[in-house]
Design a protein that fits this description.
heterodimer; A: 989 residues; mainly beta; six-stranded antiparallel β-sheet; five-stranded antiparallel β-sheet; 44% strand; globular; disordered N terminus; B: 207 residues; Immunoglobulin-like; 2 domains
Chain lengths: 989, 207
């Protein structure tokens, strides 16, 4: 057989390339939304909640969260009406409502005041105030101000006090207290006359009391009093003329009475009142009528003031207990709620300040054990049909979830811990049991056919409106994707996420529902006050073959404190049920966790945990693991990046710790190499390596003229970008001459710098992604004043000679020669850069099972969308006028900027607010990859970077196929009969 | 009609705000910083006419200074302002779902305070006033082509059917048109040829 002419083959290839170019990314149709993707909106842990007044008739609540979100929630269902995510560098401190129309927020330490329209969340005005930072700002909305139906918004921060009109944000008056070091602690308003009381503390022991005219801001009266001991910052006015303040040691209370011009005070020792005062004592902002609350680490006490002569303990609750703010019921009376734990239940108690010893409501509420302790309560009242007061409360739990409790029940709950995901891994679902699947299909055969007939009607435009709705519903709720078993394509998986609260939650990829959740006891705040922090989540055991019957398990690593030297904690969880199988508290700290590729006989992954003394500890601690690891130890290297010291170090491991010789799972490390960057010229901005589980299909890249280039593939390739000190700041802070970026490609085993390139006039922030033999990084070009994306591809020159077929046949090639990092590689580097329109928040690259499918860059843009950009757009071989051969290869002509095609947005018309991370996980089908994006919101979708070439799409019409087959069979029978007849007639002739 | 009313109210509201917005926009108290004030103009007519894209919602429009250093929101009338911005060259980006905005380079001159120059970075077009308009509306979805007989015929199944129809109905006609003598010759040639022909196979199977 003669070989086909080569040019014909090339033309064919060209056609294929052109055809695939036309459909570069899998754009989607509008009716496909929700088929493979889901989007969930969250707000984060609520730190402040303000209810709409009853008069407005709307059952809504405006909340402010620790993720810097302001949102309006429906009190009946917990749904979000509107929501704004404010940037992290503009932290919102205070929230209040004004005129029943606006939500007013104070952010950036009291310098930005914004008003939002309550019904739709539109920003109405924004005012910048000049305040001294580093102070806790106060926001107070004046009520009963008769001036032109306007409510003044008071902002107090440091020694400034501003009154801003709540209608248009114009500053009505401002007042700067000239006293040295004064800090305003409290602003209060007299109900009958327009007088403001301002309490300030100067120099920690001088109490200042000002009376201001609320309309003009003039000082009417000023009283100053020095105290023998220093006052702690916390002061609160109990009633209008009695002030309570903690002293600096937090062991005594000053009771201060103001009588006209004079101040008299009395000091009370807390130890006389409350027995156990361990931990930090806090005064809780409470209420009038002479009731205060005192919080110590083990108790919460309610105290009643008896003039200034003393205090009386009314009731003491065991911790964990929480107190709500006071809620004004009538002019004289206020209600407050106390919630504390009673075994597996919580007790919700409401009291009036006028009669503290009696309880208005006492309800026991059952709450899921995996939610931990109650952290905050926000009380709200409503008028029942019989005109009595009913109470409901928003409850914030330890896992950051938000619940509404009313009449002894949890009305709704929001899993808002998912707004602060730290780390994500996936787990396979259990294998389907035999027999189940077959029966299911047979049972559904009729349904299945009916569905396809409906679909066919849809394509043929024969379906009625009702049927169209039925088709869409059928597609969206296909039970197939939500099953709890493994599927052939690997589309169904568990996404296991670790949240900031230390909760591990498993989500189903089909519809994003929560399969299980577990608030890890080892990551919960302990009574001694240390706050553990979760670090990461890793695969611990992924059973194959022999141990298939066992469930897979995952490893969660955390620290028992916030600083890096505190001892680490470890938990092993079952992936299917979320049960904690094992928990361990290390006697060493955790600085770096290195998952190894080794597995012991029970398929447990080996992990090295490096502590702050540069010792490595091996886990799991089993003799099997240590035997395996000792074999591999000489080949184990790791590197550390010290951004503060501007150094990258490479390490190897040595047998035995120098501190504890008897611990055979502990290894000391030896520094092999280090790269010290000159601090006055370069500061490390980012270091990036490729994903550990990345699969590369081929080493060679065939280029147009039948030439082969060998990729330099090394798992030890590290990309490091450094910036000049001036360039690390914000855009606009440096001139092009004093800003530069240096990109390095470093071999992490030897510390050899494989490539170094300087971009002059470039500025951070730098984002980078490393995959196969290439790096793509994003930075700001100060000269062009545009963002730029650069690509570096690295090729192995030493293998470039292996093109001779004869040599390959005779085995004279060096392809099978062992590769070691210690040989000096001859590398060739190609690079190019392009303009890119948007700022970038994060970057990732698609991962597929075998690495055959072409790659897409997943770019999280400043608009919180994810753009899938084909790697072919960032190919350094692109040229302005590609030759015919290059065109056939599919090389795109060079353009100065990268295209942004809206159909390439993976998130289509959705936004993942406060986007932080993009994860790509291969499915079993080579063409398809899972993409999970998280920020305050979650978004999941499946992506096929080169379209689904290995399976039929959902669009495929089975009914049409069946009809065609039927038609063909009918035609065959018809022609057969016809020819029979004809033959018969021929024979009769 | 019901949907129109809130829109109208919103517009009225916007006009009312525009009057007060101007005097609130600049506060000259800050000594070292400058104020960048501008306006975002999204032509509502384009969106509502097509009905395909997303409704123009200025409540979701964010204005971003220097890649996230500061973020502000557009007011209902589209106005925005950044206060206390130091002199230098800055970048303003607008993020609004459904629209593509070109980033804008803003130069604040240090010598003559208050002099602000703005230019689009993509086209280098200089803006006389800081009014930002979207370059284009973003269509996130592919538009489904309407059903046509041609697309059905072009599908593999359609081609299969078409080929079959040709073989069944057109081929016999073509055979008839062939000169009978030539036909005979060809048949004889076939019989003599050693390669078993498909028609022969069929004939054997039928007999």
């Amino acid at each position: 057989m003669a070989p086909p002419p080569r040019h014909l083959l090339l033309v064919l290839l060209g056609f294929l390339a052109a055809a695939s170019l036309a459909t570069l990314a899998a754009a989607m149709y509008e009716d496909q939304v929700g088929l493979a993707d889901w989007h969930q909106k969250y707000i984060g842990k609520v730190k402040q909640a303000v209810y709409h007044s009853q008069k407005s008739g709307r059952r809504r609540v405006v909340v402010l969260t620790e993720e810097n979100v302001i949102a309006s929630l429906d009190l009946r269902s917990g749904d979000i009406f509107w929501r704004h995510v404010i940037e992290k560098n503009d932290p919102v401190d205070q929230l209040s409502l004004s005129l029943g129309k606006y939500a007013v927020t104070l952010s950036s330490g009291g310098s930005i005041l914004r008003a939002w329209n309550l019904p739709d969340g539109q920003m109405v005005w924004e005012t910048n105030l000049e305040v001294s930072k580093l102070s806790k700002p106060l926001l107070h909305i004046l009520s009963n101000n008769k001036v032109a139906k306007d409510n003044l918004v008071l902002v107090a921060a440091g020694r400034w006090i501003y009154a801003v009109s709540s209608i248009d944000g114009v500053i009505a008056w401002e007042k700067e207290f000239s006293l040295d070091g004064i800090e305003i602690k409290q602003v209060l308003q007299s109900p009958e006359n327009d007088i403001l009381y301002v309490v300030g503390i100067a120099g920690s022991s001088k109490l200042n009391l000002y009376q201001l005219n609320a309309k003009t801001g003039e000082v009417v009266k000023h009283i100053q009093e020095s105290f023998p001991g220093a006052l702690c910052g916390e002061a609160l006015l109990v009633s209008r003329n009695v002030l309570v303040a903690l002293d600096e040691t937090r062991s005594g209370l000053f009771l201060i009475e103001i009588k006209g011009e004079s101040i008299s005070y009395n000091k009370v020792h807390l130890s006389d009142l409350v027995q156990d005062l361990s931990g930090t004592v806090k005064l809780l902002p409470l209420m009038s009528n002479g009731v205060i609350a005192l919080q110590a680490s083990s108790t919460l006490s309610l105290l009643k003031l008896k003039g200034i002569d003393g205090l009386e303990v009314i009731q003491t609750f065991e911790q964990p207990a929480t107190l709500s703010d006071a809620l004004t019921i009538t002019e004289k009376d206020e209600a407050f709620a106390i919630v504390h734990h009673m075994g597996s239940e919580i007790e919700f108690i409401v009291k009036f300040t006028s009669d503290v010893s009696n309880e208005v409501i006492r309800e026991n509420i059952n709450i899921d054990q995996h939610r931990g302790n109650i952290e905050k309560v926000f009380l709200n009242n409503y008028i029942r049909t019989d005109k009595s007061h009913g109470f409901r409360a928003l409850v914030v739990m330890e896992d950051h979830s938000l619940l509404l409790v009313q009449q002894g029940e949890v009305v709704w709950s929001r899993e808002d811990g998912l707004a602060s995901i730290l780390d994500v891994i996936t787990s396979e679902l259990p294998v389907e049991k035999d027999g189940v699947s077959v029966a299911n299909v047979e049972h559904n055969l009729f349904e299945w056919l009916k569905g396809h007939v409906l679909k066919l009607k849809g394509t043929l435009m024969l379906a009625s409106a009702d049927e169209l709705v039925a088709i869409q519903a059928l597609r969206l709720k296909s039970s197939e994707k939500n099953k709890m078993t493994r599927d052939h394509n690997g589309f169904r998986k568990l996404l296991i996420v670790l949240t900031k609260a230390g909760k591990v939650i498993a989500l189903h990829t089909g519809d994003g529902r929560i399969i299980w959740s577990n608030l890890l006891p080892s990551l919960r705040a302990s009574k001694s006050g240390e706050i553990p922090s979760a670090l990461g989540i890793y695969q611990w055991q992924v059973p194959h073959h022999r141990v298939m019957r066992e469930n897979p398990s995952i490893l969660v690593v955390g620290r028992s404190g916030t600083d890096s030297s505190s001892p680490g904690v470890l938990s092993v969880l079952d992936s299917y049920s979320g049960e904690e199988l094992n928990s361990l508290r290390f006697d060493h700290s955790v600085v770096q966790i290195i998952p190894l590729t080794l597995k012991d006989s029970s398929e447990q992954r080996l992990h090295l945990i490096v502590d702050s003394h540069s010792r490595a500890h091996l886990y799991p601690r089993s003799p099997d693991a240590i035997n395996l690891f000792l074999h591999e130890m000489p080949n184990t290297y790791f590197y550390t990046v010290d951004i503060e010291k501007n150094v990258i170090r490479g390490h190897s491991l040595q047998r035995s710790c120098y501190l504890s010789f008897d611990d055979e799972y502990c290894f000391s490390t030896k520094e092999l190499w280090s790269i010290i960057f000159p601090s006055d010229a370069e500061r490390i901005a980012i270091s990036e390596t490729q994903k550990m589980n990345e699969v590369v299909h081929t080493q060679a890249k065939i280029i147009a003229d039948q030439d082969v280039m060998y990729k330099y593939l090394s798992k030890n390739l590290v990309f490091v970008a450094t910036l000049s000190p001036k360039a690390t700041g914000e855009i606009g802070s440096a001139a092009p001459e004093e800003a530069w970026l240096v990109a390095y490609l470093i071999d992490a085993v030897t510390g050899r710098i494989l490539h170094r390139v300087t971009h002059h006039g470039a500025q951070g922030p730098v984002h980078a992604v490393v995959s196969e033999n290439w790096v793509v990084y994003h930075y700001f070009n100060l000269r062009a004043h545009r963002f730029e994306m650069a690509v570096i591809e690295i090729y192995d020159q030493s293998r470039a000679d292996n093109k001779d077929v004869l040599k390959l046949i005779l085995g004279k090639h060096n392809l099978s020669a062992p590769i070691t990092s210690y040989t000096r590689p001859e590398v060739m580097v190609k690079s190019q850069s392009y303009f890119f329109t948007h700022s970038v928040k994060t970057m990732a690259v698609t991962q597929t099972a075998k690495g055959i499918t072409s790659k897409q860059l997943l770019i999280g843009t400043i608009g919180d969308q994810v753009l899938a950009l084909d790697k072919r757009f960032v190919d350094p071989r692109r040229s302005v006028n590609p030759t015919q051969q290059e065109k056939e290869e599919g090389l795109l002509p060079l353009t100065d900027s990268l295209p942004i095609i809206p159909m390439f947005y993976v998130t289509h018309s959705l936004q993942v607010e406060a986007l932080r991370g993009i994860v790509s996980i291969p499915s079993r089908l080579e063409s398809t990859t899972h993409v999970f994006t998280y920020g305050v919101d979650l978004f999941y979708t499946r992506l096929a970077p080169s379209r689904t070439y290995d399976s039929l799409t959902d669009e495929f019409s089975y009914a049409l196929l069946l009809i065609t087959i039927a038609a063909l069979v009918a035609a065959i029978i018809f022609t057969w009969i016809w020819s029979e007849k004809k033959e018969l007639s021929d024979k009769w002739r | 009609m019901a949907a129109c009313l809130p829109l109208l109210l919103l517009a009225l509201f916007a006009v009312a705000l525009a009057c007060v917005g101007v005097d609130a926009a600049y506060q000259p108290r800050s000594a070292e910083g400058h104020t960048i004030a501008g306006r975002i103009k999204i032509d509502a007519a384009i969106t509502s006419a097509k009905g395909f894209g997303l409704p123009a919602k200025t409540s979701n429009t964010k204005v971003i200074l220097n890649g996230g250093q500061r973020v502000t929101f557009a007011r209902p009338d589209g106005y925005f302002a950044f206060h206390n911005v130091p002199a230098g060259t800055h970048l303003i980006e607008v993020s609004s779902l459904g629209y593509l905005f070109s980033p804008v380079r803003v130069d604040i001159s240090a010598r003559n305070p208050g002099h602000i120059q703005a230019a689009l970075t993509d086209t280098r077009r200089v803006l006389n006033e800081l009014v930002l308009e979207p370059l284009r509306e973003e269509q996130y979805y592919e538009i489904r082509e309407p059903f046509s007989i041609m697309s059905l015929l072009k599908s593999p199944m359609g081609l299969m059917l078409g080929f079959m129809v040709i073989m069944v109905f057109v081929m016999p006609k073509m055979m008839e048109n062939i000169d009978p003598e030539e036909m005979k010759q060809a048949q004889e040639q076939m019989r003599n040829s050693p390669v078993p022909s498909f028609s022969g196979l069929l004939a054997r199977a039928n007999s």
